Amino acid sequence: MFWLLLATGFTGALTFVYVGHLVKQWLWATPLIQAHFSPKGGCTDAIVRELAAAHREVLVLAYGFTSRPIAQALVDAKLRGAHVEVVLDHSNEIDAHSDIHFLIEQGIVPLIDSHHSIAHNKVMLIDDQTIVTGSFNFTQHAESSNAENLLVLKHYHDLAILYRHDFELHKAHARAAEIKVSPATAEEKLAKEREHQGWHAHGHVASDPPASVEGAVLGNLRKAAALGLSIKSADGAEEKHGHPHEKKGPPPARAA
After folding, report:
1. How far is the CA of 18 from the CAs of 10, 21, 23, 56, 226, in angstroms?
2. For the residues 14-26, what does the mean pLDDT come to?
3. Cα(81)–Cα(253) distance, rounded to whole angstroms?
4. By the 8 A CB rule, do 46 and 131 touch?
5. How crowded is residue 143: how many other Cβ atoms within 10 Å of its Cβ?
6. Which of 120, 192, 204, 241 is the catalytic position?
């Protein structure tokens, strides 16, 4: 009995020391900020790396969501036993290329925040210790084509409390997803990615291809203005669109 009590006491002491070390590490860890930039600046890899370190919980607020590596990292975190919650913008319900379809198939069922015109957040809160945020959408285009920024903030406990509170606010008015399109096939996703790359390769100004005929027309008008081209209206009148940086000549002389 003496040896049993001694062994139990020793083990208990080790457990106490270990728990105390974890509490100290959580409360007094040095705050850390990491900055990443795109295109092709490692933003996706940074997010996947932080998700791979998740042990207990991952909370996500997102607008666009087409990055399969990030979606897979969320699934992997769930398989390791972490609690994963995702709230997405309502546009994902009608986007065949959104990874909302993949997440649902893998057992992560996102909620939809249709309370706002656009739920434009790009936020992850991991284990109440790590905040991932910035302009970087969780999409393929944000990684490969767009100019974006990403911040990873660790051990900012007061800030983490605020982000958790904001997540709970959006979750409270979110609803179940109402999927309105079938997921795109692998071939369709590849075709869209090639189309997007071609769009940027030809020097278009917009960050994404036009979503409508009106968008295409407006895009052409902007390009015409930039090049100083003339455009005829429906009634045959010709309108000159000068280059925005073109210096204008002196006004005509006034008659004596």
Report:
1. 12, 5, 9, 18, 65
2. 55
3. 80
4. no
5. 25
6. 120
Residue 127 bears catalytic tag: yes
Distance CA 62, CA 70 (A): 12
Instruction: Respond yes or no: is residue 120 known to be catalytic.
Output: yes
- Catalytic one among 76, 127, 166, 208? 127
Q: Which one is catalytic: 90, 97, 101, 122? A: 122
Lowest mean pLDDT among 22-26, 37-41, 43-47: 22-26
Pairing relationship of beta strands 148-154 and 175-176 according to DSSP bridges: unpaired
Q: pLDDT tens, 160-206? A: 999 999 999 999 999 999 999 999 876 676 676 666 556 455 555 44
Burial class, 165, CB count within 10 angstroms (exposed 0-12 / middle 13-18 / buried 19+) = exposed
Digit-coded pLDDT (tens) for 100-139: 999 999 999 999 999 999 999 999 999 999 999 999 999 9
Average pLDDT in the chain:
80
What b/e readout covers 199-229, taking b as 16+ CB neighbours within 10 angstroms? bbeeeeeeeeeeeeeeeeeeeeeeeebeeee
Rounded distance, CA 211 to CA 140, Å? 17
pTM above 0.70, yes or no: no
